[in-house]
């Protein structure tokens, strides 16, 4: 149902934006920001309730230099995608209530009020529809949706901010890694860690992503696509990659690190587990060791941005292990195809995961 406190108000609409598609080269979009037409902004007043959300022209924000998010990192984000179906008109969202609930869970950890599930979904729908001409043609990519929740009220001493802003912006995207759909090459990180027990690794706080930049840039400078993190206690169990979750396949059994507070509970991760089980695969969520990784038949990553990315090689303590022949392994290809066909509306959604716009 539509929450009355979050009715969108469309201001400054311009006639140039009624054309079917934005004028960009849809064959080379990659994963960089393209400024789109509108963003959704909703503020939370002192009583902890979000109200009066509205669409505004996409543009810079004005915030206090003392904002909680700028000074103490009080912020969360989400990642979602909208696809255009083959008919070019129907728009599909994927499990938006999962992102809404994850933001609410993270907000509790970060001492922030959060929009209700209904407010979150209405804001996402309004933003996608207002930027419809930026949704790529079928088969050319998706509209990436980035909801943000941040402490925008001024603080000086360390404390939760007195005011919050929920914002949704979008950008058309193609493949996340420069490799495109080709396998990525990962290096196991032995020095830096992404998360600690009792920390915030299990929520989508902005600081988790700043904390991986150092290891990621060192790895990229050496030619790797990204970094795979190990647990910080035993330095032996797989956690995740900077921007996605990890899976291994051995003798047709699929395994992935279990959710235990230091791993981001990915919605693509969870969906791949369900898809794989539906396809008859055994899936185990458990501790997965780095030794098992090196002996796996297939390795792949999952995330909203990366979708399902095959891993072509892993380097650990100077030793490089390769998988596959420069493309998907059979198990990862199967789960990738089933999931993406459902997300793009190419197959029947018998999981009831998509939302039509
Ligand atoms: C996503 O996959 O949507 C994320 O939020 C990860 C981000 C690093 C791009």
Key features of this structure:
357 residues, alpha+beta, 9-stranded mixed beta sheet, 8-stranded antiparallel beta sheet, 28% strand, globular, aminotransferase, amino-acid biosynthesis
Order of helices and strands: EEHEEEHHEEEHHEEEEHEHEEEHE
Rg on CA atoms, Å: 20 Å
Helix content: 10-25%
The percentage of residues in β strands lies in 25-35%
Rounded to the nearest angstrom, the distance between the terminal CA atoms is: 14 Å
> Which kinds of small molecule does this entry bind, naming each only once?
2-OXO-4-methylpentanoic acid
DSSP strand count: 17
Mean pLDDT: 94
How would you classify the helix and strand content by structural class? alpha+beta
What coarse outline follows from CA principal-axis ratios? globular
EC number: 2.6.1.42
Family: Belongs to the class-IV pyridoxal-phosphate-dependent aminotransferase family.
Pfam families: Aminotran_4
Catalytic activity: L-valine + 2-oxoglutarate = 3-methyl-2-oxobutanoate + L-glutamate; L-leucine + 2-oxoglutarate = 4-methyl-2-oxopentanoate + L-glutamate; L-isoleucine + 2-oxoglutarate = (S)-3-methyl-2-oxopentanoate + L-glutamate
Describe the structure.
- By secondary structure, this protein is of the alpha+beta class.
- It is 22% helix and 28% strand.
- It is built from eight helices and 17 strands.
- The chain has helices at 68-72, 96-109, 117-130, 206-210, 213-221, 267-278, 290-294, 330-343, and strands spanning 38-44, 50-57, 75-77, 80-84, 91-94, 142-151, 164-173, 184-189, 226-230, 238-241, 245-250, 253-257, 282-286, 298-303, 307-316, 319-322, 354-356.
- A hairpin with a 5-residue loop joins strand 1 and strand 2 (50-57).
- The two termini are 14 Å apart.
- The chain binds 2-OXO-4-methylpentanoic acid.
């Amino acid at each position: 149902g539509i929450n009355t406190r979050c009715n969108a108000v469309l201001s400054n609409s311009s006639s140039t934006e009624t054309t079917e598609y934005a004028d960009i080269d849809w064959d080379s979009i990659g994963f960089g920001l393209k400024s789109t037409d509108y963003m959704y902004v909703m503020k939370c007043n002192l009583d902890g309730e979000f109200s009066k959300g509205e669409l505004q022209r996409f543009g810079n924000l004005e915030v206090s230099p003392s904002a909680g998010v700028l000074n103490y990192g009080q912020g969360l984000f989400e990642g979602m995608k909208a696809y255009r179906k083959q008919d070019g008109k129907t728009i599909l969202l994927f499990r938006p209530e999962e992102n809404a609930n994850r933001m609410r869970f993270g907000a509790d950890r970060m001492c922030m009020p959060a929009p209700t599930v209904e407010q979150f979904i209405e804001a996402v729908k309004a933003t996608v529809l207002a930027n419809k001409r930026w949704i790529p043609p079928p088969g050319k990519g998706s509209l990436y949706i980035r909801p943000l929740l941040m402490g925008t009220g001024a603080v000086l001493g360390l404390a939760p901010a007195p005011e919050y802003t929920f914002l949704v912006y979008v950008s058309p995207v193609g493949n996340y890694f420069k490799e495109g759909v080709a396998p990525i090459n990962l290096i196991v990180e032995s020095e830096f860690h992404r998360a600690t027990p009792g920390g915030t690794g299990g929520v989508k706080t902005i600081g988790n992503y700043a904390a991986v930049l150092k290891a990621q840039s060192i790895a990229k400078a050496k030619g790797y696509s990204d970094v795979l993190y190990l647990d910080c206690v035993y330095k032996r169990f797989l956690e995740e990659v900077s921007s996605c979750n990890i899976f291994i396949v051995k003798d047709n059994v699929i395994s992935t690190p279990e959710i235990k507070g230091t791993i981001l509970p990915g919605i693509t991760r969870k969906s791949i587990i369900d898809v794989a089980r539906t396809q008859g695969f055994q899936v185990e969520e458990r501790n997965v060791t780095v030794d098992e990784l090196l002996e796996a038949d297939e390795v792949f990553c999952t995330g909203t941005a990366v979708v399902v990315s095959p891993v072509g090689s892993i380097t650990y303590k100077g030793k490089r292990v390769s998988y596959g022949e420069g493309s998907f392994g059979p198990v990862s290809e199967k789960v990738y195809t089933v999931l993406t066909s459902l997300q793009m509306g190419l197959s029947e959604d018998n999981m009831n995961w998509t939302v039509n716009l």
